[in-house]
Design brief:
Blueprint lengths: L16 H4 L1 H5 L5 E2 L11 H11 L11 H15 L8 E4 L2 H12 L5 E4 L6 H8 L3 E4 L3 E3 L2 E3 L2 H7 L5 E5 L11 H14 L2 E5 L20 H6 E5 L2 H4 L7 E4 L3 H14 L6 H13 L1 H25 L4 E2 L7 E5 L7 H11 L2 E2 L1 E2 L10 E5 L4 H17 L3
Parallel strand pairs: 1-13, 3-4, 3-7, 7-8, 8-9
Antiparallel strand pairs: 2-10, 5-6, 9-10, 11-12, 12-15, 14-15
């Protein structure tokens, strides 16, 4: 079966954050939004049909996640990445960041250190700080056209933290860390007695030459110190259903994690999130394989177009995700002027790189999870603005 990722979907008026919240974020609503990390593709029919079937029942009362739910997760992780997960390891989270907040609460105390690797997803630092933890940074290094981990610095920094938040695949750089890199991370965390909270929400979206590796799958030792978080939300465009998965092999850590959710009574989730997850993980292989091809082609198109037509905006092709990290340093603009250039001259809404830490100054994050026609129009607008500035 072929799926049509070129189909234009009008999301305006649906209370869609990406489109209907543009004016409050960018100050205007006549731009092409390439910011919020969901896609503009139709949620696949096998998910929508499952939701419609459940919605046809006249009662939307309390529900629970049965064994079929866990089996769908276990089967998916085994089929896609070869990770054999036990049902008792699986728990619920209303989102990956919600799960990470539980993990921080369960495994550390106020004042303890939490390590992140900027430029990185902004909520990591925000939630750690909100919980009274000290944020410690191990910035990634740009080395010969690739974002790399500074392992010497990581070794030093891990001495003073209780938790390492790993983002793999990495948002926004698009790195899919290798087995060797993950093994080095694991050895250092074991050496220093540091727990790993691993955000793997983009794990389904690796490109052809790359394969996702779950750090907890590398050894029993690493499984015992790791909480892994995955979700169908980025993959199948179901973020609005607030349903993510925590995988915690260590029984003691799992109990502490569960208690965090029970304290605020949010562990039940919602009917449609559970239905959608099961439908996605039981039926989504063919759809996902085609989606990955389409997104990678979009990434190739943007990287090639920038290189050939706007060479002062550089972009390393990501290894995963539908996010591109644009290096705009050669435009010689202040960061404030750079953001203004994209919004008010190119009429494009991208994420400001500074949101991802000071290492993101002069960078912008672009979402390419959209029909090719949208990207073609966006790049033409960017080219006109680029030429008007005589860059």
């Amino acid at each position: 079966m072929r799926y049509d990722f070129d189909e234009p979907i009008d999301r305006r008026g649906s209370k869609c954050e990406k489109y209907d919240n543009m004016e409050s974020v960018f100050g205007r609503n006549d731009i092409i939004p390439l910011w919020v990390a969901d896609t503009d593709f139709r949620t696949p029919d096998f998910i929508m049909d499952a939701i419609r079937e459940r919605a046809a029942h006249p009662v939307l009362g309390y529900s629970f996640r049965c064994s079929y739910y866990n089996e769908a997760i276990r089967s998916w992780l085994w089929r896609r990445n070869g990770w054999a997960v036990e049902s008792r390891w699986i728990d619920f989270s209303a989102g990956v960041i919600c799960g990470i907040s539980y993990g921080i609460s369960a495994l550390s105390r106020p004042g303890d250190g939490v390590l992140i690797q900027p430029p990185v997803y902004p909520p990591f630092a925000r939630v750690a700080e909100a919980l009274g933890r000290k944020v410690v940074t191990n910035p990634l290094k740009l080395d010969h056209g690739s974002w790399q981990i500074d392992f010497d610095d990581l070794d030093k920094k891990l001495k003073d933290v209780k938790i390492f938040i790993l983002c793999n695949p990495h948002n926004p750089t698009g790195r899919a860390f290798t087995k060797d890199e993950l093994t080095k991370i694991g050895k250092l965390c074991l050496k220093h007695g540091v727990y790993i909270l691993s955000d793997e929400i983009h794990s389904d979206l690796t490109f052809r030459e790359h394969k996702h590796i779950h750090i907890a799958s590398l050894s029993d030792e690493l499984a015992r110190i790791t909480c892994t978080f995955v979700a169908p939300s980025k993959t199948f465009n179901t973020a609005g259903l607030s349903t993510a998965v925590a995988i915690i092999p260590n029984d003691e850590i799992h109990r502490a994690y569960t208690e965090c959710g029970e304290r605020i009574h949010v562990g039940q989730g919602n009917i449609f999130g559970a239905v959608a997850l099961r439908a996605a993980y039981n039926n989504g292989d063919e759809w996902l394989d085609m989606l990955r091809e389409y997104i990678e082609a979009n990434a190739d198109y943007v990287v090639k177009t920038l290189s050939e037509r706007m060479p002062r905006i550089e972009c390393i092709k990501p290894e995963a995700t539908f996010l591109l990290w644009l290096d705009c340093r050669k435009l010689d603009l202040t960061h404030e002027a750079l953001v203004d250039f994209f919004v008010n001259e190119a009429l494009l809404g991208l994420n400001s790189g500074l949101d991802y830490g000071p290492q993101g100054e002069h960078y912008m994050r672009m979402n390419v999870g959209c029909p090719r026609a949208t990207l073609e129009k966006a790049l033409e607008q960017l080219k006109r603005a680029y030429d008007n500035r005589n860059f």
